[in-house]
Amino acid sequence: MGEEILEFLILGLVLGGIYALFAVGLTLIFGVLDIINVAHGEFFAIGGYAIYIAMVVFKLPPAAGLVMATVAAFLVGLAVYPLLLAPLKKRLGRRAPGPLFLVLTLGLSALMQNSMLAAAGGEYLKVPPAIKGGLDLSFTYISNQRLLIVAVASLSLAALFLFLRFHRQGMAIRAVAQNPAAAQSVGIPLGRIFTLTVGLGCALAGLAGGLIAPLFSVYPAVGFTLTIKAFAITILGGMGNLVGALVASLIIATVEAMSVLVIPSEWQNAIAFGTMILVLLVRPSGLFGKKQP
Amino acid sequence: MSRPVRTLAIIALAFAGLAAPLVWSHPFVLHIAVQALIWALFAASWDLLSGYTGQVSFGHAGFFSIGAYTAAISTKLLGFSSWLGMTAALLLCGLVGLCVGFPALRLRGHYLALVTLGFGEIVQLVAQNWGALTGGPFGMHDYGTFTGLPSDPLAQRQAAYLIVAAISLVGLAILLYVTRRTTAGPAFRAIREDQVLAASLGIDTTFFKLLAFTLSAGFAGLAGALYAYYIQLVSPTIGSSAQSALVIGMAVFGGIGTIWGPFLGAILLFSITESLRFIGVVYNLIVVGAVMIVFVIFIPRGLAGIRLRRRGRQQRADRQAVDAAS
Amino acid sequence: MLTIEGVSAGYGRLEILHKVSLEVAPGEIVGIIGPNGAGKSTLLKTIFGYLPPFEGMIRFAGDTLAGLSPDCVMRRGIGYVAQAGGVFADMSVHENLVLGGYSLGSSRAVTTAIERVYAQFPLFRSRAGQRAGSLSGGEQRALAVARTLVVEPRLIILDEPSAALAPRFIDEIYATLVNLNRSGIALLIVEQNVRRILDAAHRVVVLDMGRNAFAGASAELRQSDRIRRLYLGEDAG
Questions:
Q1: What is the domain count for chain A?
Q2: Has residue B63 been placed in a domain?
Q3: Min Cα separation A241/chain C (Å)
């Protein structure tokens, strides 16, 4: 029984890594721009398609595929603020962002998902694993792909945190999130930071999509369930709090993995939604959050 | 044009528009028209809560779905006539709306939208997995249609059209009456513009928010029931987030916050995209996404704003009143 | 050095400033006083670019500022100290100063600049790792000033530097400001504490209901019966 639990814990870690990349990206965007990117799952899908194209169509090595996944999502993400969000912000003027931005990113999500559907078709595309083989432990077998996911996710997140902490632009991003007026007064250009932040957040989603593509398959709506779960995760962790998103990702992933022991697997998704509703009712600021709804 | 003349002109136009599919009586045209009217009622109900009262709901298809399943289940298991089934759907969804409204009271903006999204997802999950009640992923299809329809297929469709049109219009009329002719209307608008200010002016925001939730959910459920009886198939996907997104797109197209704008917008957008299905199934959804983006940024008042500047004046007046009072 | 002519500005459709004019010469300390709602803060925000002016001219050392965003205005050599919440509260003192040097680009230039600021404000060197939000009100204000100094501005704009500070801290802040001015930095200060600003400033401008009311050397205004009656609460004669 203990071994079974351990097995599920490992699965939770793997899923948690993916959830974390995705949710941290989403939280980054929210923390800096105060906007929820409903289309985040579509950048996850872009990552999947990019690695498919890289590895299956162009027969490139997996590392190149992952890089392409991240870069593709980054580049498309860079376009979102200047083309979509900035014009709306300009029209709304001093009124705080809110539901209208949600509708906007919702429209983007529909546009992107269906464009991918139109361009690539709805079939579930298969991507070969980046590394074959695995680790044979006494009680279970862990594929190298899963180990890779945990490794890459951990390293990427660590790199992100270091970037935000020490790099000039990373500090600028944090400054804008904390105090946009003061940030401007030291010469930080808000528009450019917003653009960079959205690009960065989407890049993380793309990386997650590329990493899990061998396990999930690639299709236009692949990011959808994850997006909704990510909302639940960010609320649990406290919206706008990166560490909260990381911790909440691991919690939800682990609980989901372990839940198979107690509830039928079709209801697995209800855990995330149920948690979100519960948190919103009981403690809306989440585990680490400060922003009040 | 003076007001009574304009009202008459609108009624005449509306009458002509509604009579057209009947006169034409092409079965496919009727098919699109019926569904368009169902979506119109659905969109108008969404607008009452989200556009007019400012409580943006991202999971409204959940109410639609509950209404549809209520109709199907009540007819199949309890032998309700379609009239009874529709009433049951209306009342039950109103009740569910009231229940959802309570926790939503303390939430604003994104948090409210997310919790409604969660609600929609849970409804879909239940519909999908509680097979004994809902028929599982395949749904239900053997509960029949509107009670008392003639057996000739064309006549059946015409009669169905009449029923759906009548109910949709009555629904729209009720929503319009509540927002334009009762004290609820200004209260809803006040809550949308500035909730804190509204409360400080003595408006019972709790009551009116719950009222908005109840009415909105009830009519969405009624639309769902109409759908159930017309299409004669209910499945979990009718409560999906894609459906919720679709109704938002239609409302944006028509003009959020006007009630009749989304009603009309739904009819137009649905008819256009359904006709476009001949080109390719997927492009219509791309159109909806593009519409949402373009309209939210550049045409915020939707179709409603382009034509009658009166609406814009109402919203500007609301906003100025808020600026002056704060 | 700073010239403002006929500037009108406000929020949305609400016009708060009506054709306001003002000048700051290099090395001068100019104070702006006036009743609440006169538009003093709005004027500073408009100069620094937080608000676009509806009309009028804003020039600094030959460059036009009107229409520029704050991050561009600061690069012309102007610093801004907000009335409250000017520091990055969740960051350390050191990080605040590092961010102050954002526009310098290269980290070596920033390090040198920060060294200079630490020399001027030894207090912060010992508190470098402390979270800025945990500093006292006066220290936070001083940190905001120090942060602007990282890029050696020629003019610093301050919005009510004495606001919400105990008299001891007000003394300190003004001592710092006068000191800075001696090294050649011009200051434009909005103040509610009329006595302080009359003492410190060379010239004072009075704004009332968004318009210029009067202006003059602070010594002159100190003598003026009207000012004394209106703002110092002293009866003339």
A1: 1
A2: yes
A3: 13
Identify all chain C residues contacting A186, using CB atoms and an 8 Å cutoff.
71, 74, 99-103, 147
pTM confidence score:
0.88
Closest CA to C73 of B140, A188, B110: A188
Domain residues for the domain of A12 are 2-110+184-282
Q: Which residues of C fall within a CB distance of 8 Å from A181?
A: 50, 70, 82, 85
Q: Which amino acid is at B148?
A: G
* Burial state string for B245-261 with b = 16 or more CB within 10 A and e = fewer than 16: bbbbbbbbbbbbbbbbb
Q: Report the share of chain C in percent with pLDDT over 70.
A: 95
The burial class, CB within 10 Å (0-12 / 13-18 / 19+), for B195 is middle
pLDDT number for residue B319: 66
Q: Give the structural domain span for B149.
A: 28-238
Token pair of C15, please? 């016009």
| Of the partner residues A107, A232, A280, the one whose CB lies closest to the CB of residue B289 | A107
Interface membership of B237 toward A (CB under 8 Å): no
Distance (Å) from the C-alpha of residue B178 to the closest C-alpha of chain A? 24
Q: Per the domain annotation, does A7 fall within a domain?
A: yes
Task: Tell me, yes or no, whether B10 lies in a domain.
Answer: no
Give this complex's ipTM: 0.89
Residue C115 lies in a domain: no
Query: CATH number of the domain that C43 lies in?
Result: 3.40.50.300
**Structure tokens belonging to residue B248:** 């938002």
Q: How far is C206 from chain A (nearest CA, A)?
A: 26
Say if C12 is an interface residue toward chain A (CB within 8 Å): yes
pLDDT at C227 over 70: no
A51 has pLDDT over 90: yes
Q: How far is CA C27 from each of CA B5, B280, C20, C62, C193, rounded to the nearest angstrom?
A: 71, 71, 22, 16, 22
Q: Kindly list the averaged pLDDT for each block of 10 residues, start to end, along chain B of length 326.
A: 74 80 79 93 95 90 95 88 90 94 82 87 89 83 80 82 91 92 90 85 90 96 94 91 90 90 92 75 76 87 66 60 61
B253: in domain: no
Cβ separation B128–A266 shorter than 8 A? yes
Q: How many domains does chain C have?
A: 1
